[in-house]
Write a structure and sequence with these properties.
By secondary structure, the chain is an all-beta fold. Helices cover 0% and strands 49% of the residues. It has a single domain, classed as Neuraminidase (6 Propeller). The protein has no helices and 15 strands.
Length: 207
């Protein structure tokens, strides 16, 4: 479960709930992303909302709130719990409105994992995740949605094309500069989980 609060006191909680246990697989059945909102100034939580599609497998939800109350969520999704290839999905809810449609942020046919999300003080949202890159390894990819927009910008690669990137993390400064860090295992390593490097990229120094 993840929780976020707005500057005015609104709160949103998001989690992955196991569903359809009668069809459970060895991976734990079907997971559905759900959310619940407590409006600013209220002590009562609103109804539970299903964010991901029923009968599929979603997990690892992340959430952030902009100062104007816009809620952004991301998670990883697959057609079922045993699917080898997952994608990153997102839904957004503006203040006083209903949840928008599900948006797929990553390319289908390439497995993703570890989605992360930050929302800047101006409302700009940035999501990142690690994604398989053919036989070359695993890379960190990111997309940004400008403040007030409904569409996400094109995805950008943060890590290089060699090695296996892991555990991406994002942080955003008060001035809106986003910094990403991740762990990279050397493509030349002989022993698994050895020869790790810490890499970083920032919107202040994008190169």
């Amino acid at each position: 479960m993840k929780v976020a609060a707005s500057a005015t006191g609104g709160v949103v909680a998001i989690w992955a709930r196991e569903r359809d246990t009668s069809n459970a697989t060895s991976s734990g059945g079907f997971g559905q992303i759900q959310a619940r909102i407590q409006p600013a100034g209220s002590t009562t939580w609103g109804p539970i909302t299903d964010l991901s599609r029923a009968g599929t497998h979603a997990s690892d939800p992340q959430v952030g709130i902009a100062p104007d109350g816009t809620i952004t969520t991301v998670w990883e999704w697959a057609s079922d719990a045993l699917a080898a290839q997952k994608v990153t999905q997102s839904r957004t809810r503006t203040t006083g409105a209903t949840w928008g449609p599900v948006q797929t942020l990553s390319q289908r046919g390439k497995d993703v994992d570890d989605p992360v999300l930050v929302v800047a003080t101006d409302g700009t949202a940035t999501a990142a995740w690690k994604r398989s890159y053919g036989r070359a390894g695993v890379r960190v990819q990111a997309r940004t949605r400008p403040a007030g927009a409904t569409a996400w910008n094109s995805g950008v690669w943060l890590s290089g094309s060699r090695g296996e990137a892991d555990e991406p993390r994002l942080t955003v400064a008060p001035n809106g500069v986003v910094t990403a860090v991740w762990k990279l295992s050397s493509p030349l390593r002989v022993v698994p989980n050895q020869n790790f490097y810490l890499q970083t990229r920032s919107t202040a120094f994008p190169g």
